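Entry 14. Two folds queued back to back today. First construct below, sequence then structure tokens.
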Amino acid sequence: MARDISTVGVVGLGTMGAGIAEVLARSGLDVVTVELDEAGVARGRGHLEHSTERALSGGKLDTAGRTALLDRITYSTSLSDLSEVDLVIEAIPESLELKAEVFAELDKITRPEVVFASNTSSLSITEIGVHTARPGKVVGMHFFNPAPVLKLVEIVKTVVTEPDVVAEAVEFAERLGKVPVVIGDRAGFIANALLFGYLNHAVRMYEQRYATREDLDAAMRFGCGYPMGPLALLDLIGLDTANEILDTMYHQSRNRLHAPAPLLKQMITAGLLGRKTGRGFYTYDAPDSPTVVASGAVSTVESVPPRPVARVGVVGTGTMATGIAEVFAKRGLDVVLRVRSLEKAQASVARVKKSLDKAVVKGKLSEEDAALALARITPVTDFEALADVDLVIEAVAEELSVKQAVFAALDEVVRPGAVLATTTSSLPVIECAASTSRPSDVVGLHFFNPAPVMKLVEVVSTIATAPDVVATASAVCAAVGKHAVHCGDRAGFIVNALLFPYLNDAVKMLEAHYAGADDIDTAMKVGCGLPMGPFELLDVVGLDVSLAIQRTLYNEFREEGFAPAPLLEHLVTAGRLGRKTGKGFKDY
């Protein structure tokens, strides 16, 4: 296919089809485009002229290059004009009936050896291909929008697609300057199958008023380095498009997690489709504008005065405890670091000094400020030394019995009115609070590792947490330069509850042999702009840690889709825990 292609047919000249036609023409190919009527042709020509004009003004094309590109594209309203093309790419609306009709017609018009590629993002290539006499020459080539900019192309093979057709589709995508990944014919392919389950989960969290739209979006941007939060991304994609993809995925997978959240349907019915209508989860200053209009709402946190905090206690000796101690000391607060022994105290202070010295070397801190910060940390071995602190943050091992013992000890000695916080990432905060006689003073403060670097802190309120304690936690985060997001006391809070089911889904996809680990990682990095692919991230986090979090989520929510992937269980049993053991999903 890729060796002898000089002319390509493109059926459909919407945003996607016009983008694909531009990509092809940029690569020196002649392109024959077909639309339903002259109005469609005019719209498509307008898309291409606007896009190439932007490329010209941005210095990515010169005038001669733009003219040559546009001259390579011809327009038609008849499929019969595709009789001599070497390849056809279909990019019409997502309707199986319409696509089947087009493919059946193309089958009669084109030469028998011509390959048909569908740009569908969610429909079955198998179901499209059976409407031709050449199902072995039908393949998916799913470009991402905008096609001239985004590099990923998902090559979708069916059980009857000829192997050389798949190989040639990969080669052709590379010829276009794209990054191809190969996947079996399943709902959503790679990127959408993993992305839309995560987006749907975020909608459900918002629907249940578990967290605000701003906090859900900020949590994933600051906690995972995602380029956009889930609700802002849904507004960009379009809620109607998202609902359609989820519905298609659900009808193929029967996975309840793919069933579109009821809120999506309600918003679509009300005409709130996202940026294209000027309103979705957010309100924009005009249709198709990226500028969000401020809501003007005052949160309950801001309306309650916080308790004063000048002196902070930290319990623990690990990376998280010393990182938190450093964060507070650098911001001018006195820190009492409670450790089990003098030996551990020396090691903890040494760890903080090493981190501060690094900051000095990088020019992020002066030597004087580093020395002052270190002097503000007082290591102690007795809980009694925490008697007069205003806030205590527990950062011991992630075991409930250990944390409960710490909270019981703190309850005995810490002054009334002080705030008691836990950094747990997965355990119920209320279980820690129940070990004290003052559950209203207990809150979750989930810092992310490494604490001196990561901006996010999840503030977790239990059903007993007092409003001024939540306000204090929020004010403390602001004082130390962190971005606080608020949520209820449910397994995984925001970030882990959204992140780990997505990672688990990726393992299930690999386990089912639909795609390889490298292709899945590439799809999510190149197609969705994520900083790491799911398997790279699992290996960094640790497969044992990931499995423990996934089990916690499953045990709390009892969602069948949250059950840990058997492959993850088997790798942990085999001692393949990721980077820390040198072997995980990949070998190091």
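Second construct, same run, same settings:
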Amino acid sequence: MDFRVLVLSLLLWLIPFGASAIDQLDELTELVYQYPSKALTQITALEKQFTTRATSDINRLRLSVLKCQNLLQLGENEAAINVAQLGEANAKQLKLDQVRPYFLICQADANLNYNNIQNALPLLDSAITLARRYQQPQALVDALRLRGQLDTDTDNFSSAIEDLRLAIDIYPDIHTQTQNWVWPPQAYIYAAMGNLLYATHDFPQAMYYTNLGIQSSDAKGKVLHIILRNAARIALDNQEFDYSDKLEKQAKALLPELGSPLELAYSYAILASIALDKGRIDTAEEYLSIAINTFKKHNQQLAMMRSTRLLAQIRFAQHQDDAALILMNHAIEQAENLKQYSDLKGFYGIMSDHYLVQGDFKQAYSFLLKRYRAAELANQGMNTARILQFKARLNQQDLQQDQNSPAPEKASILQELNLDWAYSTLFLIAMTLLGGAIWYLIDKQNNRAPRIEGEEPAETLLQQVTSALNLAKQGNYPLSLLLFNASQIRQVDLPPLQDELQHRLREQDKLIRYSMDEIVIILPHTSAAGAKKVVNQLVACIQPWQGSSKVNIGIAAMQQFDTLESLIKRASINQLGKVKISENNPNHYSPAK
């Protein structure tokens, strides 16, 4: 009796501790973005607690995710990458793949801070794929936000607006997942949309979304300071000078709430650029000197390079052209060494404009040519990254099949098994037949895949798929896309399922194995209403293969501006919405629907 009382007492003690840990982690999620220095203190304390007390693997992994994001907010990018790589390895070992997209996003964000786009893009693409597969809207929103910001910075505005619109639409669903991990403030989503519209020179709309960010309930501390900073810049270019001064004053009032020197340095550098544009040259120089001293101390090479460019602009404004040219040449040298071609494009533009004003047209033209070449190199790097990203997606299935295929048997396996000649012969025949069957299945599956799979070049495959969309646009006839997540169906069952689905489709319809777990069906001459009828037929076909879980197929009807990726994104959102409805109304499920 005493033993049972002891066990019961222990359980009653552990349950509040577990609930307390979850509450602490939920509170930390907002604190990480709003007050990173305070959050770091709490994370360190929780790490010590978790080492001395029994804690679930999920709580440990979530604390790692929060720590990774916290390091990013403090400007410790290299440390964040190390934490993210270790966390993803632990997630794989514990078979908690649903947390992997959060670590991939953290790595991508750190690489973007280094302006390493070629590493960041594939990480973001993998994070989005995993977030969709494991239905993690918190990760999906953050990945779309980051990719939207990246596309804004690289002038890929159509893709950026699609990603950010989806992020805004999905944000209300972030708490529908069973396990919380980490999510960005809603204020940052609005601010990203504001920055995009600012980049397209739609200043009134940029102010509208930025004001939405300021009014968000999670706009506090560092989050509010950053948005006020951005708003002051947008209001200035929108000719709202008094409002810009007011916003700048509010942003400065929040500077004491930034706990780390690097946070302060980045803010002072941006405030210096705003002060320069307002003609307050002495204030700009004062702020920039504070920032430069911190950047030097922490060896922030990219920040130093950009601060040198800003200091040169201050010297130009002070009519100290010789000093300004020395600084600009130094900044250009740094950019060339770091291969920051997008920055180089801007640097050469400043030099060209200066020589144009001085009447030195030969030098102005020379730097104009250099600017054009830098722009070409920047675009080339971005295009290379996107092509590699697309090829990686096409080859994902083949790579995973190669990894899962059995290793070849050793030459001495028969001796090791110590079988006699007759059994050895039978064994070899059986292995030959098995190998032939495996080869046949793989070959059959490869032949069945979309005209988007196979051994053709990625550019040719992409052209085949987009040609169907282009024909629909040119012919002005409807086209719909269906998206089905096959992650709950065994891989060996997918080939016969694809055969069965193909029999139920028309000859002009196209079934595409888009990724390892995603099947896309393109329905030319089919409206959204017609697509729903097709879905009803396909659900009855898929349900026996999937078992008791409900089949959810996303639908997207083509619009004139759509691409294959935007159609798939909207179909994915439609699918997530159906998953949410089915979770909220479990009693209304019927396999026949």
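Quick look at the second one. Strands lie at 479-485, 510-513, 518-524, 553-557. Confidence is low (pLDDT under 50) at residues 5-19, 405-421, 448-459, 588-593.
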